[in-house]
Amino acid sequence: MTFSIHGLAVARGIAIGRAVLAVSSRMEVVHYFIEPGQVEAEILRARRGRDAVAEELQRLQTDMPHDAPPELAALLDVHLMLLQDEMLVNGVKHWITDRLYNAEWALTTQLEIISRQFDEMEDDYLRERKADLEQVVERILRHMRGVASPVAPPPSAPRRQAEAGAEAEFLLGGAADAPLVLVAHDLSPADMLQFKQSVFAGFVTDVGGKTSHTAIVARSMDIPAVVGARSASQLVRQDDWVIIDGDAGVVIVDPTPIILAEYGFRQRQITLERERLMRLRHTPAVTLDAQAIELLANIEQPGDAGAALRAGAAGVGLFRSEFLFMGRSGRLPDEEEQYRAYREAVEGMQGLPVTIRTVDVGADKPLDKGYKDSSLNPALGLRAIRWSLADPAMFRTQLRAVLRAAAHGPVRLLFPMLAHVSEIRQTLAQVDLARAELDARGAAYGAVQLGAMIEVPAAALMVRQFLRYFDFLSIGTNDLIQYALAIDRADEAVAHLYDPLHPAVLRLVADVIAEGARQGKSVSVCGEMAGDVAMTRLLLGLGLRSFSMQPAQILAVKQEVLRADARKLGEWAQQLLDADDPAASLQAP
């Protein structure tokens, strides 16, 4: 009987095929006490499990194909670092030694303690890193139990493909072999690497969010995916026909011939549309009324530069440098390590500009795993530029590395979460000191443009003052919406109030764009609004001429730009600013 499962749409497209259920990595842990004389042996069991996982991940790194997305290597690095996390290792030893827990019990107990810290984090992306830690622990448990890796097509897969129903095969275009889609409770980055090398055409997971690692990798690989589908791995049976609608976030199980035919047609249309969009790669992003639009890419690792170029990006509008700092158990990257990373990104963009945002951590995003923020609301605490200014030596280390990388190509330096003129002055003073330190040792460095993130209402309201000090501005709409509307977008009870079309949000965005135009300085949007094609014409009408987004979104946004008349859209956008309910009038002329 046909039924559907709803989840989160995280990677576009449609996949149709037979379901392959991944072996569940969620294991029931037996809890028991050990004798004092067994402590060392139990610690050794835990260590051997951890070492086996490390060897497995290192082997995956070694065997990684040349065309693997750069995100995969970075995510494997995250898991390897988590394996060595002192809080995890020492915690397991503590529970075994002091409480006489068996190794599995000690491991899951410490996982629960660390998980609570992740749950308290404000940032969506970082909060979902709890899933990475869970996956690492589950891999250790599997090795301790001698269970095989969870992601691999069953030996009977080729036979099942050959036995697929003739009616479905005909509706899918007469293929000799039915595609396979993977259904799992969760997928780790290492699992995703095997997924990349397998025959799977799409995947569904019970858990995960739009900023989870599996979602990020799926988008980079352009594979149809639905996450957060709750009990999909329990409802779908091995070998069921499954349709994954990555655009709508829907999974259809045991579809009828009519539904199969409909989605088969849509699948072919999507393929043709993507091929057509690829023809726009080298087409200049210019509106019908001859307005040149800058389409930039957001990246998280130096290796992402290649994906940005392939998508036709005019540069990098946001390099989130904090990913170089995370998951290192308090061991911050030194100047040389940062310099090499920034230089790789700059050279990878082949002369196109790279905007590097200084580290955006602190409060709810501690670098030291042992640090616990005592503030009642970490989102309003010591984070971003506040954290950097609280540690000037660390801050200047990053500034020197960025300045040195600027000797190899055009670099723009971006500062997050500024709200006070005093913060601006302190920040610029640190830049001057960093230059002086490089001069003192005779190190080469380049000129950089300086910019500020506009992501708190205070900054948007003070845009004139900000532009006295900075060469450009970048609007971080995700945080701006959250702070302007006083809601936590991660809180399910109020998430429905997170509204990019709220009149107050649009007014803040419009005023910043307009003031930048008046002063002849560039303003870009680097939040989710920039990559949402439903928002492209509105942002053009508000005067935005620089968008920064995930590389996979660039061509679709470019198509909207090429079809738009910015002059006509300007009149319509002004009407929306005065509307009580802009969402109701979003359809552009």
TrEMBL record:
Its main location: cytoplasm. Its cofactor is Mg(2+). It is found in: Cytoplasm. Mg(2+) binds at E455, D479. General (non sugar-specific) component of the phosphoenolpyruvate-dependent sugar phosphotransferase system (sugar PTS). This major carbohydrate active-transport system catalyzes the phosphorylation of incoming sugar substrates concomitantly with their translocation across the cell membrane. Enzyme I transfers the phosphoryl group from phosphoenolpyruvate (PEP) to the phosphoryl carrier protein (HPr). Signal peptide: none annotated. The active site is at H213, C526. It is an enzyme of class 2 (transferase). Residues 6-129 form the Phosphotransferase system enzyme I N-terminal domain. This is Phosphoenolpyruvate-protein phosphotransferase. SUPFAM superfamilies: Enzyme I of the PEP:sugar phosphotransferase system HPr-binding (sub)domain, Phosphoenolpyruvate/pyruvate domain, Phosphohistidine domain. Belongs to the PEP-utilizing enzyme family. Pfam families: PEP-utilisers_N, PEP-utilizers, PEP-utilizers_C.
